[in-house]
């Protein structure tokens, strides 16, 4: 997979993409992540990328021309056409279903903006799909793009150390993940559940399903509307 990120602050990505799973995936040749600075395509001596909005209002809006010029440059960096995603609070909310969908693409082109947002013609002209990570406002789209990249890369075959890791994580089966324990058996009066040390894999699996359902009921009951699991099944 190739992921291109268009941003005004490429230096922000060095840390999140330079450690752990994203780093290992890049080193293993599973993903190629490239950053392009939109500012390089800004207008005039000052590389202008934003302007005041028509109709008035606070803040500045990212201009069409620098973004289109940047996109046309990025598009030519690889012959594989890319699925274009625009980081926007007004977009489709990122969930595990969308992450799995994106992980099947050969190329993604992410557009991370700043200021009050993008000139509407950018989304229209590029056919970009707006994507959000929640109902709140951030200073820019960089953090959103990092979340998209991390969530997608970990689903690429070979990115995780254990072949079942991705399928057993929270949201993968429509429920939150079950509790995990490790050594010691007891710590400050809190013990590891006996079933996990029983060696009975059928009982362990049943316990984990029950715990996943209970956690989801407690912390994310909204997920149960779309969940295939029921009390009878666990």
Task: Give an overview in words.
- This protein is an alpha/beta fold and 234 residues long.
- Helix 4 (96-103) packs across helix 6 (142-153).
- The protein has two domains: 2-153, Alpha/beta knot (3-Layer(aba) Sandwich); 170-226, Trp Operon Repressor, Chain A.
- Residues 229-234 have low confidence and may be disordered.
- The radius of gyration is 22 Å and the shape is elongated.
- The protein has eight helices and nine strands.
- The protein has a five-stranded parallel beta sheet with strand order 2-1-6-5-7.
- S-adenosyl-L-methionine binds at residues 113, 133-138.
- Belongs to the RNA methyltransferase TrmD family.
- Pfam families: tRNA_m1G_MT.
Would you state the CATH class of the largest domain? Alpha Beta
SS-based structural class?
A: alpha/beta
Gyration radius, to the nearest Å? Answer: 22 Å
The name of the CATH topology of the largest domain is Alpha/beta knot
Helicity level, as a percent range? Answer: 25-40%
- Summarize model confidence as the mean pLDDT: 92
**Which strands sit side by side, in order, in the main sheet?**
2-1-6-5-7
Largest sheet, in brief, is:
5 strands, parallel
What gap, in angstroms, lies between the N and C termini? 37 Å
Number of domains: 2
CATH architectural grouping of the largest domain: 3-Layer(aba) Sandwich
> What is the name of the CATH superfamily of the largest domain?
SPOUT methyltransferase, trefoil knot domain
**Structural shape:** elongated
Helix/strand order, N-terminal first:
EHHEEEHEHEHEHHEEH
- In DSSP terms (H or I, runs of 4 or more residues), the helix count works out at 8
As a percent range, the share of strand residues is 15-25%
Beta strand count:
9
Uncertain residue segments = 229-234
EC number: 2.1.1.228
Family: Belongs to the RNA methyltransferase TrmD family.
Subcellular location: Cytoplasm
Pfam family, one: tRNA_m1G_MT
């Amino acid at each position: 997979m190739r992921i291109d990120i268009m941003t005004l602050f490429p230096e922000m990505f060095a840390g999140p993409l330079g450690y752990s799973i994203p780093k290992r995936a890049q080193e293993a040749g599973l993903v190629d992540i490239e950053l392009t600075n939109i500012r390089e395509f800004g207008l005039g001596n000052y590389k202008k990328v934003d302007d005041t909005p028509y109709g008035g209002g606070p803040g500045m809006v990212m201009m069409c021309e620098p973004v289109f010029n940047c996109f046309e440059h990025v598009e030519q960096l690889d012959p594989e056409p890319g699925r274009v995603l625009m980081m926007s609070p007004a977009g489709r909310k990122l969930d595990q279903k969308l992450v799995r969908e994106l992980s099947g693409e050969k190329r993604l082109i992410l557009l991370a903006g700043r200021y009050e947002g993008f000139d509407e013609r950018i989304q229209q002209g590029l056919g970009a799909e707006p994507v959000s990570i929640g109902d709140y406002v951030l200073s820019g789209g960089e953090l959103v793009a990092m979340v998209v990249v991390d969530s997608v890369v970990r689903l690429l075959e070979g990115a995780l150390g254990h072949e079942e890791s991705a399928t057993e994580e929270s949201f993968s089966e429509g429920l939150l993940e079950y509790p995990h324990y490790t050594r010691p058996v007891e710590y400050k009066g809190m013990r590891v559940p006996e079933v996990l040390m029983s060696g009975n894999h059928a009982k362990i699996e049943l316990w984990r399903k029950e715990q996943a359902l209970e956690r989801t009921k407690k912390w994310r009951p909204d997920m149960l509307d779309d969940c295939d699991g029921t009390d009878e099944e666990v």
